[in-house]
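Student: I would love a firmer grasp of how sequence relates to backbone shape in proteins. Thank you; the sequence and its tokens follow:
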Amino acid sequence: MTSDLDQPGSGKCVLFDVDGTLIDAVDNQRRVWATWAGRYGLDAAEVHQVALRTRPMETFAKVAPDRDPGECLAALHELEDDDVRSGVYTAFDGASELLGGLPPGSWALVTSNYEHRVRGRFARTGLPFPSVIVDAAAVDEGKPSPVPFLLAAERLGARPEDCLVVEDAPSGVEAGLRAGMTVWGVNSATAVVGVHRHFVSLRAAVADIFAFAGLEAVTSAVPRLLTDRDGDGARRESP
């Protein structure tokens, strides 16, 4: 653990998903899968719907069971790498403030993507990169397995119960819960089943994430719109 985390009021760590949580890559993913589907004569919309719910190898098995999965994956990787070089990416509002404001060594990225692509996207959007990232190559079991989040906590020197997972997808939420961590959902109108708190946007969660990390001093100026899972379910702006 870094010395920053040894200060009073700290000791907590934040583990961020990337796509859909920090970076808006929905259009990019749709274009990549559409191009991939076109190569195999498949319906782009149908392929994308399957890809949203499954990992690539599972997607190939469902939409192209007669194709060599290794070939399918190589084609997908080629398209994704090209998109990182030429596509347009946008960081969600609040992402730069969050990642720049958290102490070094107190946060990590946990993604089903690969590190070189994440680095490329962060460079394109100007987001700071952490000392710890757990990517698809780092683990044998991806989300919804708890393994990626547990590995990130281990690398940060943190206990699972001291970690906050910030996610947008059901598989990531499940992984965080199975890891025994606090899980907050962001960037959706409705809460993913199981989250401890739900925020309609990443921006709405900024103040509370800082507070979780023990940085209460930076929270007062950031308004938020949130829904508590155990509350009345109403959306409301904090005072």
The radius of gyration is 18 Å.
